[in-house]
Amino acid sequence: MPSETFGGWWSEEITGNTQKLGDEFTYHYQDMHRCTWKLVEFVPNQRVAWMVTENFFSFTEDKTEWKNTKVVFDIARKGDKTEIRFTHEGLVPAYECYNVCSDAWGRYIQGSLKSLIATGMGSPNQREKTK
User: Fold this and answer.
1) Cα gap 127→99, rounded to integer Å
2) Domain count, the chain
3) pLDDT per residue over 24-48, tens digit each?
4) Among 4, 116, 73, 62, which residue's Cα sits nearest to residue 15?
5) Which of 2, 17, 47, 67 is a Cys-bridge partner for 43, taking CB atoms 3.0 to 4.6 Å apart?
6) In a domain, 39, yes or no
7) CATH number, position 75
8) What is the CA radius of gyration of the chain?
């Protein structure tokens, strides 16, 4: 999943490399959320995982809640179809952002990513306009 793929379903505010192990990219959404990710697992057509190495939330008491959590995409063939299983390892109900973050991931994965795969068009967060 190259960074332009993330830009197609998650956010246009992603910069950096996502092609090989050790690559890093950054994401931000307005002044509410910014984080840095590192590609820590990559098995072509089977598994891709990114670790959050830095995180900032403006809306939680613990600004770094996602730090050291991991987002995993497990990919498998199911007959003539492909199954993608998404897991945010370490995002737990005890986190202040849990409900908001779980809901957001659900919208991105079940809505935007699914649409990108099916139609070629997702609904990512738009790039902020500079003044």
Assistant:
1) 25
2) 1
3) 999 988 889 999 999 999 999 999 9
4) 4
5) 47
6) yes
7) 3.30.530.20
8) 15
Bridge partner list, 34: 28, 56
Tell me the residue type at 89.
E
Amino acid at 112: S
How would you class 45 by CB atoms within 10 Å of its CB: exposed for 0-12, middle for 13-18, buried for 19 or more?
Answer: exposed
Which of 115, 101, 43 lies closest to 69, judged by CA? Answer: 101
Residues 6 or more apart from 111 whose CB is under 8 A from it? 123
Write out pLDDT tens, residues 73-99.
Answer: 999 999 999 899 999 999 999 999 999
Range of the structural domain that residue 21 is part of: 3-119
On whether residue 58 sits in a domain, the answer given is yes
**Domain assignment present for 23:** yes
Distance of CA 14 to the CA centre of its chain: 10
Q: Taking a C-beta distance cutoff of 8 angstroms, is the pair 111, 9 a contact?
A: no
